[in-house]
């Protein structure tokens, strides 16, 4: 008996030791963190229409109808479909897996002459759709040197550029207050890659660099939207100047809301393993700000070898589309789609498990007219779901969504543990289906009262 007990204790100890030594980026460990950080215990107190508590023993169903977490996508491709019958299919597939929409507010597309701002039709349509679906929306971006109108880019006077930019960001914050969140100055450290004569570069340098520039923009938009949600965003997570920008803002009390990190994986060196993703998130977690993975691209072809190949591919695609010639897009392959789906599962599982991550935004829903002509969509060119889309749907709508049947106790309550978000509770009484709704958050310390009707 003593030997048996000793053996059992040793086995249990070794199991605990193995679990403790599992790497943080292991998917099994990530699933444990998901249940720790993304779920909450709930006690729901149910009242019938007559004000009487629900009778003990009756069974109710608890169904999650929406996530607290932002599973997002980019609605810029609405421009491809906005006057075509396929638009409804595109939007239906979008809303099936996303509750968070990034909207294209590229300055040069909406204002070609000073004072002639007009939001284009496809952006209006995308914004209206997102609001009708109850999605959280983000404007992308308030400012970006790659989408400046010519009158700003070529303006010789820095003080006039300053007026243009500050009037523009204040206008967006004021006129589009229905947009929930905003990217501030997109990819600010990347300004060093622009020619010295570029208007935005001259303006940023006149202010002292990305940090002071961010400080000035945040100060302006906070005057318009004191409670607004404003993000930094950059294309290189390992860019020292991005970390300098973040530290400057923290050291100088710049009131930004979250850190945005882009993860486009079009070339081999940009492909992020689960271990690399976890390490990257841990590095940004030191800043104690929510993290948004703002632009995720995983291709379903072989990633290109280097940056030169990416540039050549992008240039060829832009040239062909500008001249209405044959599109030199790289086709998706069965093996590539299998790898894309598996990489998506790993990426989302690790990211969703990190407590600092607040949003994941997939960039290209469809392969049609995809950025750089590379198949990073979740749908093919005919809007049919690829394996990656089915994987995301399974994660978001099944694996990480709560549905329970519970018996009411003597106090008219039910208890369960579920993913945070919106819920519907249903009870059948005398052949009539009664329903009520509630929201489960991390802060739900007390019983949640729900009146059925």
From TrEMBL:
Residues 81-395 form the GH10 domain. Its EC number is 3.2.1.8. GO terms for biological process: xylan catabolic process. Residues 314-338 are annotated as: Disordered. GO terms for molecular function: endo-1,4-beta-xylanase activity. InterPro entries: GH, GH10, GH10_dom. Transmembrane segments: none annotated. It catalyses: Endohydrolysis of (1->4)-beta-D-xylosidic linkages in xylans. Keywords: Carbohydrate metabolism, Glycosidase, Hydrolase, Polysaccharide degradation, Signal, Xylan degradation. Residues 1-20 form the signal peptide. It is an enzyme of class 3 (hydrolase). Belongs to the glycosyl hydrolase 10 (cellulase F) family. This is endo-1,4-beta-xylanase. It comes from Crateriforma conspicua. The gene is xynZ_4.
């Amino acid at each position: 008996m003593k030997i048996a007990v000793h053996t059992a204790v040793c086995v249990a100890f070794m199991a605990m030791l193995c679990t403790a030594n599992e790497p943080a980026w292991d998917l099994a460990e990530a699933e444990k963190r998901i249940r720790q950080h993304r779920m909450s215990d709930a006690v729901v107190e149910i009242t019938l229409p007559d004000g009487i508590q629900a009778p003990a023993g009756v069974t109710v169903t608890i169904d999650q109808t929406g996530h607290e977490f932002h599973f997002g996508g980019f609605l810029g491709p609405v421009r491809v479909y906005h006057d075509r019958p396929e638009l409804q299919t595109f939007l239906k597939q979008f809303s099936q897996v996303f509750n968070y929409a990034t909207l294209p507010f590229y300055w040069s597309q909406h204002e070609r002459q000073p004072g002639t701002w007009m939001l284009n039709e496809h952006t209006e349509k995308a914004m209206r759709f997102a609001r009708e679906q109850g999605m959280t929306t983000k404007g992308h971006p308030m400012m970006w040197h790659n989408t400046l109108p010519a009158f700003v880019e070529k303006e010789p006077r820095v003080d006039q550029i300053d007026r243009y930019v500050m009037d523009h960001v204040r206008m967006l914050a004021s006129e589009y207050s229905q947009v929930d969140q905003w990217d501030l100055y997109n990819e600010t450290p990347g300004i060093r890659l622009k020619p010295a004569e570029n208007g935005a570069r001259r303006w940023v340098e006149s202010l002292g660099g990305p940090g002071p520039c961010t400080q000035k923009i945040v100060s302006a938009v906070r005057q318009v939207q004191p409670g607004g949600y404003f993000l930094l965003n950059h294309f290189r997570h390992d860019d020292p100047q991005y970390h300098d920008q973040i530290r400057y803002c923290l050291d100088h009390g710049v009131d930004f809301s979250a850190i945005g990190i882009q993860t486009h994986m079009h070339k081999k060196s940009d492909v992020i393993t689960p271990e690399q993703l976890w390490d990257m998130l841990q590095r940004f977690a030191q800043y104690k700000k929510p993290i948004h993975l703002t632009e995720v691209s995983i291709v379903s072809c072989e990633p290109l070898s280097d940056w030169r190949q990416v540039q050549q591919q992008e240039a060829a695609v832009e040239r062909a589309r500008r001249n209405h010639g044959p599109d030199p897009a790289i086709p998706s392959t069965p093996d590539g789609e299998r790898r894309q789906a598996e990489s998506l599962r790993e990426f989302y599982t690790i990211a969703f498990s990190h407590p600092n991550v607040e949003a994941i935004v997939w960039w290209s829903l469809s392969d049609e007219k995809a950025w750089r002509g590379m198949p990073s969509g979740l749908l093919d060119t005919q809007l049919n779901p690829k394996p990656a889309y089915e994987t995301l749907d399974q994660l978001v709508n099944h694996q990480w969504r709560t549905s329970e049947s519970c018996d009411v106790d003597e106090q008219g309550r039910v208890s369960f543990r579920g993913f945070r978000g919106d819920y519907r509770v249903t009870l059948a009484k005398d052949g009539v289906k009664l329903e009520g709704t509630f929201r489960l958050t991390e802060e739900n310390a007390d019983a949640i009262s729900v009146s059925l009707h």
